[in-house]
Amino acid sequence: xxxxxxxxxxxxxxxxxxxxxxxxxxxxxxxxxxxxxxxxxxxxxxxxxxxxxxxxxxxxxxxxxxxxxxxxxxxxxxxxxxxxxxxxxxxxxxxxxxxxxxxxxxxxxxxxxxxxxxxxxxxxxxxxxxxxxxxxxxxxxxxxxxxxxxxxxxxxxxxxxxxxxxxxxxxxxxxxxxxxxxxxxxxxxxxxxxxxxxxxxxxxxxxxxxxxxxxxxxxxxxxxxxxxxxxxxxxxxxxxxxxxxxxxxxxxxxxxxxxxxxxxxxxxxxxxxxxxxxxxxxxxxxxxxxxxxxxxxxxxxxxxxxxxxxxxxxxxxxxxxxxxxxxxxxxxxxxxxxxxxxxxxxxxxxxxxxxxxxxxxxxxxxxxxxxxxxxxxxxxxxxxxxxxxxxxxxxxxxxxxxxxxxxxxxxxxxxxxxxxxxxxxxxxxxxxxx
Length: 434
What we know:
The protein has six helices and 21 strands. The protein has 434 residues and is of the alpha+beta class. The protein has a six-stranded antiparallel β-sheet, with no helix packed on it. The longest helix is centred in the first third of the chain and has 26 residues, at 56-81. Residues 28-35 have low confidence and may be disordered.
């Protein structure tokens, strides 16, 4: 018998009561409402501080009471949260014939059941401010790209579910090591050094983690994405095959206009499409994972047609742009996509100029395919430029989570799991709030 979610004996009905009870013990992220024990105690302390009619001994005593009260709140909260495990275990054991005492496994299985049964909770909404270059401006011309979508569906990034599990925070992406050109290291720093999920301000990240700069010299799944090496026959680049057009006519090596290094790929304006293909190993792309395609492109003259980079023929997994809108100076192009349950057979990565025409040429350099690192739910990628970053160079980005859904926030906070969400959920959020 499948799970019952709402109504008498419903699993979300029971979990909602536990979540509601646990929320009483701290100030809430968005409501700041009266009635929460944490806020009531804070109001008492603030009132006594504002009167300021007691001596230092009384002040110390008040602080001791406040500290002891906070510890009691956290203990009571944890005692209530401990009820989640037996409630889940009973429901999954009886209704789904799923037997385990591991809480992480049970939560993941609950999510899978919800996806199977078309059940959703109220979606949290995440707004992104930035990314923006730091002040003073960075020495290097690297670029930061972020994503507030989860890897829930194969295809373009925005086709997936918004990641309501992102921690709301102000981040700095700071260069902390630049010993290897094209493989610099960056720290992702939150605005407060706190990572304890039991704290009322749990969503402030502190040091969230580290990532590497993306370039053809490092942090890419493609070989020779900078087109620096020719193949042995001299009729293509190493690790790339010409699969459309004639080498030296419809596509060729250019040594006078590279973005970085000594050479790049040029598509002259002929009447025949040119295409390079690199075949990746089977299983290179991992399931339900976020990737970014990045490259540098410019034009001369007035070419027409389009440029396509990525896994052509796979919906949402390649980037296409009209070359008429490409600039005469190199610019950074990037595109984020997500994989599905089994991307193992997706292997053919192409760089192609389709429907060519007009005059002049299109130049492409620094083609990279990289996995996007995830920090507290936020996807962050740092794309390298022609000038290497200096130590201390940084960009900023702010993630603002409205924490609209009590179920969504609870499971993201305590278990790191993104439940299926919707603005109009099938499971009422009132089960966990009233």
